[in-house]
């Protein structure tokens, strides 16, 4: 994807401080920030989302008497179990994806030339950069959907809580459906609600990380494109200079032969 040619100056010929400064200059800070934000958001979403789903199962089974259907039947509790496995997959997938984006950021950072020398960009490198942009955009849309889906239980609980603040009494009947009437279940309900809020915040952080990655990848793509054009220009220039040198050498030999 990217081929490099090492310069004579390396960290072995520098002092400890100079080597550390040079290594810090190589770091793709934009990609590093986006990766940290992505990991924090995914960890918050997966951890809190998993516990919120477990709390939802506890509430349904203990306070709404929801029983698990036979194995071959798809019920609410089975769907929640499936969502838990999806969370496991999301955590593993985005851990790997964050590492891949960091590696891509290292290879497309302009500062890397100061350490490893000039590098040549192949067609494969340009295709990989474009592929990362497309994949990150798809993940951005997916996280938007996840954020919208996670906001549903938060919205429902907030609506009920708001209605219960303005309780309406008609003919002695309380029309407010206050979920706190389940006694000790209110503690589990409140904890589950706050876990869903944290999961929503994690999904929002992942969306911001995807946007940041899109900006970083677009800038890297522009750099790769400009570097590719510069590489072609340098190749053409070198070829023309070699041809001119060959012409001058041939003419010099002809003149020398004519004099002799």
From TrEMBL:
Assigned keywords, A-Z: Membrane, Transmembrane, Transmembrane helix
SUBUNIT field: Interacts with OPRM1. Interacts with palmitoyltransferase ZDHHC17/HIP14; the interaction leads to palmitoylation of GPM6A.
Protein family: Belongs to the myelin proteolipid protein family.
Transmembrane segment boundaries: 85-107, 128-149, 193-223
Membrane topology term: Multi-pass membrane protein
InterPro entries with a match to the protein in the record: Myelin_PLP, Myelin_PLP_CS
Pfam family, one: Myelin_PLP
GO biological process: neuron projection development
Main localization category: other
Organism per entry: Oncorhynchus mykiss
Subcellular location: Cell projection, Dendritic spine; Membrane
UniProt name for this protein: Neuronal membrane glycoprotein M6-a
Protein's gene: GPM6A
Gene Ontology cellular-component terms listed: axonal growth cone; dendritic spine; filopodium; neuronal cell body; plasma membrane
